[in-house]
Amino acid sequence: MMGRKKIILCLIIGAVMAAGLWADTFWGHIVRIDGQTFITEMPRGGAGYQKGLGGRKALCRSCAMLFTFPQKGEYAFWMKDMQFDLDILWISSGRIVYIEKNFSAHSAEIVRPNVLADSVLEINAGMSEKNGFKVGDWVVVY
């Protein structure tokens, strides 16, 4: 059964990559948190980091955007040009250090948690609650 899931996941990734839908991003890693798997896109260059998921109409249930940074820092995120709500997870050394749940697409707020992080994961709003994600959970990136 596990082999079939991996084949399906590879087919999905391959189809999206072949479609070349988003020039500001590229397909990055598989991320697992407490048994939940996300297929991640990663922003390409400074403009990609600034745009993020802005301008998109939706994000598939098992998709996410992973931002990685060369050093730990206090990284701020906003919802400019967003059309759907997000959960945003700040990660440091493979553990969740902060979660902003149900961040509204209509918010003008800039969220800058007082935590050091080396990566940030954006997922669909409600996924953190649905899956019971909490600060301290391990994040495995493949």
Structural summary, described in words:
- By secondary structure, the chain is an alpha+beta fold.
- The protein has a single domain (23-141), classed as Sandwich (Jelly Rolls).
- 21% of the residues lie in helices and 39% in strands.
- It has 3 helices and 7 strands.
- It has helices at residues 2-19, 45-51, 127-131, and strands at residues 25-33, 36-43, 63-73, 86-92, 95-103, 117-124, 139-141.
- It has a 7-stranded mixed sheet with strand order 5-4-6-3-2-1-7.
- Helix 2 (45-51) links the parallel strand 2 and strand 3.
- It is globular, with a radius of gyration of 15 Å.
Please supply descriptive tags for the structure shown above.
Jelly Rolls; 7 strands; 21% helix; globular; alpha+beta; 142 residues
CATH architecture: Sandwich
Looking across the biggest beta sheet, what order are the strands in?
5-4-6-3-2-1-7
Overall geometry comes to globular
CATH topology heading: Jelly Rolls
Low-confidence stretches: 17-22
Q: What is the end-to-end distance?
A: 20 Å
Order of helices and strands: HEEHEEEEHE
Structurally, how many domains make up the residues? 1
* Helix percentage: 10-25%
